[in-house]
Structures are given as structure tokens and as C-alpha cells.
Write a structure and sequence with these properties.
CATH topology of the domain at 52-127: Arc Repressor Mutant, subunit A
Number of helices: 5
Order of helices and strands: EEEEEEEHHHHH
Radius of gyration: 48 Å
Largest sheet: 5 strands, antiparallel
Number of strands: 7
Oligomer: single chain
CATH class of the domain at 52-127: Mainly Alpha
Helix content: 40-55%
Length: 214
């Protein structure tokens, strides 16, 4: 079960399961006697997912503390939460050696141990099953990343090939050169032809009408 659906309510022993949302309260059910009651906003209500234990450097989520207790006890229950304070401290120090000795009290340790034993008793906490549920998501995520990368590479290669192939416009340059050559050659040829005709006409006129002085 998800720890966000399990909660601790100040003034009430044990743990409660969330059932439904009311107008000004929530309906919860006790894990031990299965009795339901209304928990109002005036009460201090915390889900197990929100609780963390102070350490010398940081805070450790309660879920991680339960996992350490689970590994330490081989999946079984911990010591009785009503054990003497010295035994509670020794046990907690073995499970979480870095816990803050000044801010974590024996009463807090007893609550954590009691909550853990209830979860184990009713088979509501199995970290191995939770890890297996998380592994398929990571695998599918990698496959999606690979699938997303493949089309991007193909499109890039295609665009590079097309852009490099476009600049070949040699035939257009030849046609432009030919048209320029034709346009330049035509106007030059016409005046030469006219000059030859005019010289011929002048010679013929001289033959027909020779100058009087000769």
C-alpha cells in the first residue's frame, strides 16, 4: 500500500487508513480494530509519506527508514516499541546510525517502531515489490528516448543532403553565357556589314562618275 494513504493522528495510537473525504473532515479506518471515525482539520494529521527523521546532515524519509528496518530484521518485525529506552536507542542506532541524537527523542523512535511493526503485521510494506514496480518504468523510458532520437537523426541527414545538392546550377550559367554572347555578337556584326556595303557603293560611284580632274 502507498504510504500516502496511511496516516498518524495525534491523540490516537496506531495508524489509520484513508477512506473518503467529507465536508469538514476525512473518514479514516484503524488498522487494528477496523473501526471508522471522522478526523477533523483541528487534529494534527500526517501521512507516513510526509514524515522524515532528522540526521546529522539531512532528513531521511520515513519510507527509507522502514526499508533499513526491513533489511535489518530480514523482513520481520522489529523489537517491541514498549521495550526500555536503552534498548530502543541501541536498536535505532543500529538501523540509522546517523540519526540526530538531540532532535530525535525516544518517544519518536517508539512511534516509528510501532508503525513499522503494524505495517509488517498486516503485510502493507514490501520494499522489494516497490522496487520491481519502478524498474519497468525506467526501461520503457530508455526505449522511448532511443525511439525519439532515431527520427531526429534521419531528418537531419536528409536536410543536409538536399541543401548540398541544390547549389548545382551550371546549366543555367551556360545558358546565361550563351544568351549574353549572342546579345553581344549581334550588335557588333551589323555595323560591319553596313560599312562594307557603303565602301562598295562609293567605289561604284567613283567608277561611274570619275572626278573631273583625272
Amino acid at each position: 500500500m502507498d504510504l500516502k494513504d496511511l496516516m498518524a493522528i495525534s491523540g490516537y495510537p496506531g495508524l489509520f487508513r484513508f477512506i473518503s473525504q467529507g465536508r469538514n473532515s476525512i473518514i479514516v479506518e484503524s488498522l487494528e480494530d477496523k473501526k471508522r471515525m471522522s478526523a477533523y482539520s483541528t487534529s494534527k494529521i500526517n501521512t507516513l509519506e510526509e514524515i522524515a527523521i532528522f540526521t546529522e546532515t539531512d532528513e531521511v524519509p520515513l519510507k527509507d527508514v522502514f526499508t533499513k528496518m526491513y533489511d535489518h530484521n530480514g523482513g520481520g518485525e522489529a523489537i517491541n516499541h514498549k521495550s526500555p529506552a536503552g534498548e530502543i536507542k541501541d536498536y535505532f542506532g543500529k538501523v540509522l546510525p546517523e540519526y540526530d541524537r538531540e532532535r530525535v527523542y525516544v518517544s519518536d523512535m517508539k512511534k516509528v517502531i510501532n508503525w513499522y511493526n503494524l505495517l509488517i503485521k498486516y503485510e502493507l510494506f514490501k520494499p522489494e515489490a516497490e522496487d520491481k514496480d519502478e524498474t519497468p518504468d525506467s526501461g520503457t523510458g530508455k526505449q522511448e528516448d532511443k525511439q525519439n532520437l532515431k527520427p531526429e537523426n534521419n531528418t537531419e541527414n536528409k536536410t543536409e543532403v538536399t541543401t548540398e545538392a541544390k547549389p548545382e546550377a551550371k546549366p543555367e550559367a551556360k545558358s546565361e553565357a550563351k544568351s549574353e554572347a549572342k546579345s553581344e555578337a549581334k550588335p557588333e556584326a551589323k555595323p560591319e556589314a553596313k560599312s562594307e556595303e557603303t565602301t562598295k557603293e562609293k567605289k561604284e560611284e567613283k567608277r561611274k562618275n570619275p572626278p573631273k580632274g583625272e
